[in-house]
Amino acid sequence: MSTQHPVTPHLVVGVDVGGTFTDLFVLDERDGSARIVKVPSTRGEEARGFMNGVVRVSEGHAPDATQGSSAAATHGVASTLATIVHGTTVGTNALLERKVARTGIITTRGFRDVLEMRRRDRPQTWGLRGSFTPVVPRDLRLEVDERVLADGSLHTAVDLAQVRAQTQALLDAGCEAVCVFFINAYANPVNEQQAVAAVRAMWPNPYVTSASEVLPEIREFERCSTATLNAALQPVVGSYLAKLEDDLRTQGFSGELLIVQSNGGVMSRETACDVPVRTALSGPAAGVIACAAVARASGYPNVITGDMGGTSFDVSLVAEGEASLAAQTSIEFGLVVRSPMIQIETIGAGGGSIASVDASGMLQVGPESAGSIPGPVCYGRGNTRPTVTDANVVLGRIAADRPLGGGLLKALDAKAAELAIQTHVATPLGLEALAAAEAILTVANAKMAGAIRVVSIERGHDPRQFAYMPFGGGGALHVCAMMREVGVTTGIVPRYPGVTSALGCVMADMRHDAVQTLNKSLLDLDLTQLKSRLANLAEACQKRLDSAGVRFERVQEVVALDMLYMGQTHTLQVPLNPTDISRESIQAAFEKAYAASFGRVLTGMVIRVMNLRYARIGVRPKFDLAVLAPKGPGSTTSLGVQRVYHAGQWWDAQRYARLELPVGAQVAGPAILEQADTTVWLEPGFSARVDTLGNLLVERMAA
Known about the structure:
Layout: E1 11-17, E2 21-28, E3 34-40, H1 46-58, H2 68-75, E4 81-87, H3 90-96, E5 103-108, H4 114-117, E6 141-144, E7 147-148, E8 154-156, H5 160-172, E9 177-181, H6 190-202, E10 208-210, H7 211-214, H8 220-250, E11 256-260, E12 266-268, H9 269-274, H10 282-297, E13 303-308, E14 313-319, E15 322-323, E16 325-326, E17 329-330, E18 336-337, E19 341-342, E20 345-347, E21 353-357, E22 363-369, H11 388-394, H12 414-429, H13 433-455, E23 467-471, H14 479-486, E24 491-493, H15 500-507, E25 510-521, H16 527-547, E26 554-565, E27 572-575, H17 583-598, E28 607-619, E29 640-646, E30 649-657, E31 666-668, E32 671-675, E33 678-682, E34 686-690, E35 696-700
Parallel strand pairs: 1-4, 4-11, 5-6, 5-9, 9-10, 13-23, 30-32
Antiparallel strand pairs: 1-2, 2-3, 7-8, 11-12, 13-14, 14-15, 14-20, 16-19, 17-18, 21-22, 24-35, 25-28, 26-27, 26-28, 29-30, 31-34, 32-33, 34-35
Helix pairs in contact: 1-8, 3-8, 5-6, 10-15, 11-12, 11-13, 12-13, 13-14
């Protein structure tokens, strides 16, 4: 009879749930080895696809091979997993599809319509019409008597009897979550705190959000929107993560489940349940973190990233090795989240984006997508409208007879894809099917290039000084086209483009951000109070780090002030050295930042300090990216010739197994480089070289 030995968890797993596939990157802490796993996503049941991936990860990692299947059954298939880091789209999808919890708002009398009035912006800049439906309807936005003035002084104490009555009214209306939002609670939260305590005493679940806890910052609409979306997401994200953790524990998982934030850091499951609004866009954010690390290691600190999945194309810019952060973003029109987020420009130009001819006879690509169900026509799952992927298949850039996704799709139906393009695009435009397929890609490439210009040229960056790194399942098919369109001289295709976001999950540090409004002129700023508030924010963020139970190599902090000249509306974020806080150092830092942004300073104008921002970062242990590099001698032998239609003619493209190419191998276009998670299309006139980390460095060949 064999003796059971304790299991030592040793696998760190990053999980990114996409619309078509769930991607997993697996790092073995014992020997530093790594591998990838892809499984189909289960739309509407993301936890099931997640667990299918965990089971696949655990295959071949039994607790002890000498103990056989009985040991695996005793310990559970997930017992070898030390840490799971998850980039989730559950919150983002819930907001986009408006599938959130029925939510109510309790607010200051006279301010029930803040959520609907917004900033009086319009869906289309030049449009005379537009509509907006708030997440919370007007009959669920209830008022009570209370008032704190902008300077923080208490004008009218909150009427708790009214609070209790309105709470009962929301419960009777079937609300599952509630947000308490008082107009000036950022300056003094006493009324809001009392109201929240009264609501929580009556509310049957933990889904009660205090706006001043989520965002203690001036500007009522942004605070109301962020807190309300947080409340609406709490039941959705909370139930998803609770089920996920229960399933993992059932399978023997005893480690830490961490969630990626939109700022590129990670947080504990408990924190994610408290502030789920910070999970918006967390999957794309993880991909940017991975790209920044891979590019730095390859000697390219400046890189533009392009994540092309099944539905969207997400673009971001990394300058000097650091991703750009924005103070707020809009998930869609009117759904504003004010929380630090990696700046990402998203357009509807994914592999599943549908091509059509509109009423004016113009070819359009996206934003409507075939998604994962039914998917592109070539998947053979019932869709009859052509997509970007169908165009790539018809043109020969994706081999129809090759398995897709590592065998998840055995073959593709190229004839059905061609018929769909002929019917819906070629015939209406009077083109041949091949020309129509090229036209689809031309339009898609133009849209993607436009998004790249938004994050580069329109923000003062010259794209020629950046490398371009495509990732996602479809990005590498368009790398040369993006280089041509935008003028980028170097393309970097990472080793595993299709699982880059999952890789970023493993690499991300734990980070917590906090903000506190000051709203003082620099001359009136109380420096002692500033230091005290800074210490309070640091303590609160450190508690969040400590609660996660994760080991850190070190802790870093980032401090900044939102500043502007008196009379201005928009602030400038100014880095602050916490060891040198003086009026002189703050003014010098502001003037330096202002001059860098606008070319001059406004001498003699009063400087105002609006907000104090603080971030505490727990740096997690890093692994050597060399584990991704090719091992052994490899092979540069061609797998054969593939006919590809490009620029109006057929080309004989050599096919290669991309992951078999050794370090230093060079490939000249036209060429197709295949791997389980993506396909690389190397156009004529371009060449690619494998660097020491296994990346493909794409450049134009000399004429």
